[in-house]
Design brief:
The complex is a heterodimer of chains A (357) and B (301). With 357 residues, chain A is mainly alpha-helical. In chain A, 73% of the residues lie in helices and 0% in strands. Chain A has one domain: ABC transporter involved in vitamin B12 uptake, BtuC. Chain A is globular. Chain B is an all-alpha fold. Chain B has one domain: ABC transporter involved in vitamin B12 uptake, BtuC, CATH 1.10.3470. In chain B, 75% of the residues lie in helices and 1% in strands. Chain B contains 13 helices and 2 strands; from the N terminus they run ααααβαβαααααααα. The longest helix of chain B has 27 residues. Chain B is globular. Chain B starts with a helix and ends with a helix. Classes of the chains: A mainly alpha (357), B mainly alpha (301). The interface between A and B is large, with 60 and 51 residues.
Chain lengths: 357, 301
């Protein structure tokens, strides 16, 4: 029954219910957030209006939102593809981090004579391969010794973070960075161009990373809805035993789904490296993996819902920056708003699912 | 040197041990709590704030326990009564903890605290080697070491422990016997958060004597991994936590001795070791898993 429903596109009634659910969640989130801000003696209305100004009113606000949304979209797709096959990819942070490593390795291998934007795709390929390998380890462990991929990918994340820390503290350390552990900055030709020409969004930090994300989203949308592979993934996700009996190559599908997810997470690392940071450094993956996981899960792993969710999360993240700059509150405080909002949605979803049995 | 490493292993591993014991109880009841990390964070901050304001580290530890339990209760309520997905809820609750502790803790960054002093156990601490390692620690570390066998006794030799295990294996049986599996699960998750909260208190008021944003830095996730590593056995969690603390301590000692080691790579060792053990023992471990837990991982929607 559920498997059948998954094969159908979402109908408008469900969409309307989702909108209502999100609307009430926003109210709950904002109220709870205001409460906590007031608890430390800050003015909640001032904080909220600073966030609104930063994300919407400020001329570079909408662009900033997309700067944050791009890695979230990619990280969410990295969760969504394996999820179609019934797999949990909880290792987004690690795959993003390895994407940064892979792109930097590619950058080192490119001869300096290739000083054009032709180098950028090579960095992207390096990032995708590294991310895919990292996620692939979890996939192989799953099909060979039946080790749960949620646990293994999560553990592998911490390994990846240490690997990058080691590289930027040691072999890759930029002697000119005055003790700050980071690699040498990429040459200008290996950084994503700014989208200055774009109306409304351009003008600030907005770079071509959002195009990478939207392109990946379109590819995933097509692959999952219009290809045999996408259909088979959903069959495996719906009932692996039935898929096996129907003669589908279940192990192969599991591995390819995880490889694809890891590659896309690697691209998130590529986007952050070449679009935002400009040099490999520790902590570059932030919590984008977890954010992507939540966005994908709440959007039922649907690419369109992921796009909407990522923009919402991006807006909240921009608000977090504003909190720090304008209201003097830690940027991480914004997680309160995000978490309460998501809890409200999760709670309502839970009840609805409970009723379904 | 070996003495110092092992003493550091016990001291550094005890916060993880508390959290792993808590998560063992929670998972035995069939609920995985990825926000163990969050409970440690709220516990660390609450303990720190109360210890700073009252000057009493014990009151701080109590507050840490309460804060960790409160956060876990939120997770428990969501997954037990609202039927929310366990993994997703855990991460959301963790985000809540990250935000709340960053905001409420901002005025306590860099503020000094009179935390727990080390208590040398009279007589025992004079035993060469063993004395330094085991009997010259902070009180919360002693508590952690005692808690491991106590949690084992609780789970395997008491009625509440039987209920917890029944709730994790076959909730229907518990229901048929006239008890509420939901209430038992909720209680187990909350109790798990309480222990993780004490672990956080050990971190901020006994080990680091300091509060900083996101200071738990992944120890809660290590604890979750250790529970599986240990096959859902509290005594195995003791071994795992000491191993993890040992690697951390070895690395600090090597650095202090001026030995050049790639500290970051050494840091990855405990995660790799956990992964390796999981791979080697995966078949056996899967049999040891509470049945209710297996279901959590099977359904991703």
């Amino acid at each position: 029954m559920t498997a059948l429903r998954r094969l159908r596109p979402p109908d408008p009634a469900v969409l309307g219910r989702d909108l209502l659910r999100w609307g009430s969640a926003v109210v709950i989130g904002l109220a709870g957030f205001a409460f906590f801000v007031a608890a430390v003696g800050a003015d909640p209305f001032e904080a909220l209006s600073a966030m609104w100004r930063a994300a919407v009113v400020d001329p570079i606000g909408p662009g900033e939102v997309l700067v944050y949304a791009a890695p979230v979209i990619l990280a969410a797709l990295a969760v969504a593809i394996p999820a179609r096959a019934g797999l949990w990819n909880l290792g987004g942070e690690g795959q993003i981090t390895m994407g940064v490593v892979g792109a930097t390795v590619a950058s080192h291998m490119i001869p300096s004579s290739l000083d054009s934007w032709a180098a950028l795709p090579l960095l992207a390929v390096g990032a995708a391969i590294a991310g895919a390998i990292w996620c692939g380890i979890a996939a192989v462990l799953r099909v060979s010794v039946n080790l749960n991929e949620a646990i293994s990918s999560l553990l592998l994340s911490y390994v990846a973070l240490r690997v990058l820390d080691y590289l930027v503290n040691g072999p890759w350390k930029d002697p000119g960075s005055l003790g700050i552990p980071q690699a040498e900055p990429l040459p200008a030709s290996q950084q994503l161009p700014l989208l200055d020409w774009l109306p409304v969004f351009g003008g600030g930090r907005l770079h071509a990373g959002i195009l990478v994300a939207v392109l990946a989203l379109a590819v995933v949308l097509f692959a999952s809805r219009r290809t045999v592979w996408g259909f088979r993934l959903r069959v495996v996700g719906g009932n692996p035993e039935a898929a096996r009996r129907a003669g589908l190559p279940v192990k192969q599908l599991i591995i390819t789904a995880m490889l694809a997810g890891g590659a896309i997470a690697g691209l998130a690392g590529f986007v952050q490296l070449t679009g935002v940071e400009g040099a490999a450094k520790g902590g570059i993956a932030g919590v984008y993996g977890f954010l992507g996981f939540l966005v994908s899960w709440l959007g039922r792993h649907d690419p369109v819902a992921i796009l909407i969710g990522a923009v919402v999360v991006g807006g909240i993240a921009v608000g977090g920056d504003a909190l720090q700059i304008d209201a003097g509150l830690p940027a991480a405080s914004i997680n309160i708003l995000l978490a309460l909002l998501l809890l409200a949605v999760l709670g309502r979803r839970g009840r609805a699912r409970g009723a379904e049995g | 040197m070996i003495e110092a490493v092992l003493a550091g292993a016990v001291r550094g591993g005890s916060s993880i041990l508390f959290a792993a014991l808590g998560e063992t109880v929670s998972e035995r009841a069939g609920v995985i709590n990825l926000s163990t990390e969050g409970s440690m964070l709220t516990g660390a901050l609450a303990a720190y704030v109360v210890a700073v304001e009252t000057g009493n580290a014990w009151l701080g530890a109590l507050a840490g326990a309460a804060a960790g339990a409160t956060l876990a209760a939120l997770h428990g309520a969501m997954v037990v009564w609202r039927g929310a997905n366990q993994l997703a809820t855990g991460i959301v609750v963790l985000f809540l903890a990250l935000g709340v502790t960053a905001l409420l803790g901002r005025d306590y960054v860099g503020v000094g605290v009179e935390g727990f002093d080390r208590w040398a156990v009279p007589g025992l601490s004079d035993i060469p080697f063993v004395g330094t390692i085991l009997f010259n620690q902070d009180p919360l570390t002693y508590l952690a070491l005692i808690a491991a066998p106590l949690v084992w006794l609780l789970l395997y030799r008491t009625r509440p422990g039987l209920f917890v295990r029944a709730a994790g294996e076959r909730g229907e049986v518990l229901f048929a016997a006239g008890h509420s599996p939901r209430l038992v699960r909720f209680g187990a998750v909350t109790f798990g958060g309480l222990l993780a909260g004490i672990g956080g208190a050990q971190l901020s008021t006994a080990l680091a004597l300091n509060w900083s944003e996101n200071m738990v830095a992944g120890r809660g996730f290590v604890a979750v991994a250790l529970v599986i590593f240990a096959g859902w056995n509290p005594l195995g969690a003791l071994v795992g936590a000491l191993f993890f603390g040992g690697v951390e301590s070895l690395q600090l000692q090597l650095q202090a001795q001026g030995v050049s080691v790639p500290a970051d790579l050494l840091n990855a060792l405990p995660y790799l070791a956990t992964l390796t053990v999981l791979v080697v023992l995966s078949r056996k471990r899967l049999h040891a898993a509470p049945e209710g837990l297996a279901r959590v991982f099977e359904i991703s929607r």
